[in-house]
């Protein structure tokens, strides 16, 4: 019996090491199964809702209600009210005929009102559908551009973070499309890459490490285009909405920091950062910030080394995508759509040059993690999403080091022979 168990564990371990278990047929099968299950769940969720309110008393598309309500306030000439919780909540309830719904705060810089105005020009259900369809199409197009293979669209569509993002009506698709598109076009069209990075400023917490990478890589054209894009967005928002809305945004940042982040108003299990993990485990606010800052500095140092090196661009891009998620204290599970960018670039490099031990299994774990991260963290206190992000970043660096060592090792062996 002992030999049988040893044989089983040896087979499992060998499979994890080699990644042979993840055949193309299984990849397609798992993706189709998950797509089918999630499609049925979404259909049931909508069918059982009472109009636009689901069985839990939340709006269909939950977080999208804050975008729609902010757009309505802008149409009414009061965009600054979106940054005042009581007035924003009243606007959200008005969207649903005065029915009581949870409060979903508006925390975006004023230039994101452009999206809010567009989606709120039509009825709520249509606005949600247009928003998700358009941003999902952009996400798929970028994923296909990064990894032009037959199975890319299916695997990208079935990525569990997709369904988390759909359920919240959130902007993970847009974030992934902007960052992934910027990295895809960085070498060929650096100015376009800069424009996409500038547009990503609507989620400024994800831009902490991007300047580090661009400066280390001497990507001056992209840096210039990004700075010009941000300046243009700010100028246009000042011209169209007035300076008062920017003051309201700045005044609201204390509420966002204290209530939403530091006090865990969003829910520790939803936030996939080391800051949230530390707070969930009982650390004080200052200690949690110290841990987060230490991690961000380590990530910045690693990325600076990687981006100034001659490592393959796919590894630089993958590390920046996963590192950007790790560096911020406020990253939600729907933001893990961006992890697809890291997976795609890593997979492209592995498919071109061969995979090292455990890399295929790691990519599979990273692909599956968004499906389980919130539930595991809520039930056990273990931040699965954070662990997978850290492993992805570390494996990317390890691969870069090994790839740089390989030519030297070959040269040494040739000299010995």
UniProtKB/TrEMBL annotation:
It is found in: Cell membrane. Pfam families: GT87 (PF09594). It is a multi-pass membrane protein. This is DUF2029 domain-containing protein. Its main location: membrane. Coiled coil: none annotated. One of its GO terms (molecular function) is hexosyltransferase activity. GO terms for cellular component: plasma membrane. InterPro entries: GT87. The keyword Protein transport does not apply. The chain crosses the membrane at residues 30-48, 111-141, 153-179, 191-216, 223-246, 289-307, 319-347, 376-397. Keywords: Cell membrane, Membrane, Transferase, Transmembrane, Transmembrane helix. It comes from Bradyrhizobium sediminis. Belongs to the glycosyltransferase 87 family.
């Amino acid at each position: 019996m002992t030999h049988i168990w040893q044989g089983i564990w040896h087979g499992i371990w060998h499979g994890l090491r080699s990644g042979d278990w993840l055949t193309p047929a299984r990849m397609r099968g798992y993706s189709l199964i998950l797509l089918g299950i999630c499609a049925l769940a979404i259909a049931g969720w909508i069918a059982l809702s009472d109009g636009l309110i689901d069985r839990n008393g939340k709006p269909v598309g939950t977080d999208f209600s804050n975008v729609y309500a902010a757009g309505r306030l802008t149409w009414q000439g009061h965009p600054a009210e979106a940054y005042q919780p009581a007035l924003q909540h009243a606007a959200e309830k008005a969207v649903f005929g005065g029915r009581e719904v949870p409060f979903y705060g508006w925390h975006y810089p004023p230039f994101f009102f452009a999206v809010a105005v567009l989606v709120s020009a039509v009825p709520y259900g249509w606005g949600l559908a247009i928003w998700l369809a358009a941003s999902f199409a952009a996400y798929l197009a970028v994923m296909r551009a990064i990894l032009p293979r037959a199975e890319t669209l299916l695997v990208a569509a079935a990525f569990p973070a997709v369904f988390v993002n759909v359920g919240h009506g959130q902007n993970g698709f847009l974030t992934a499309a902007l960052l992934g598109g910027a990295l895809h076009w960085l070498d060929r069209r650096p100015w376009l890459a800069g424009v996409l990075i500038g547009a990503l400023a609507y989620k400024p917490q994800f831009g902490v490490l991007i300047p580090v990478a661009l400066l280390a890589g001497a990507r001056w054209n992209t840096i210039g285009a990004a700075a010009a894009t941000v300046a243009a967005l700010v100028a246009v928002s000042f011209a169209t909405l007035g300076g008062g809305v920017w003051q309201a945004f700045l005044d609201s940042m204390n509420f966002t920091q204290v209530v939403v982040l530091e006090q865990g108003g969003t829910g520790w299990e939803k936030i996939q950062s080391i800051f949230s993990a530390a707070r969930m485990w009982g650390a004080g606010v200052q200690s949690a910030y110290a841990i987060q800052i230490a991690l961000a500095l380590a990530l910045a140092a690693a990325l600076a080394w990687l981006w100034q090196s001659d490592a393959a661009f796919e590894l630089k891009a993958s590390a920046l995508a996963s590192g950007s998620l790790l560096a911020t204290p406020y990253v939600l599970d729907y933001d893990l759509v961006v992890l697809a960018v890291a997976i795609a670039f890593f997979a492209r490099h592995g498919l071109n040059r061969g995979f090292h031990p455990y890399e295929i299994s790691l990519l599979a774990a990273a692909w599956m993690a968004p499906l389980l991260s919130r539930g595991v963290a809520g039930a056990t206190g273990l931040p699965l999403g954070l662990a997978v992000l850290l492993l992805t970043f570390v494996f990317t660096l390890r691969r870069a080091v090994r790839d740089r060592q390989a030519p030297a090792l070959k040269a040494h062996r040739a000299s010995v022979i």
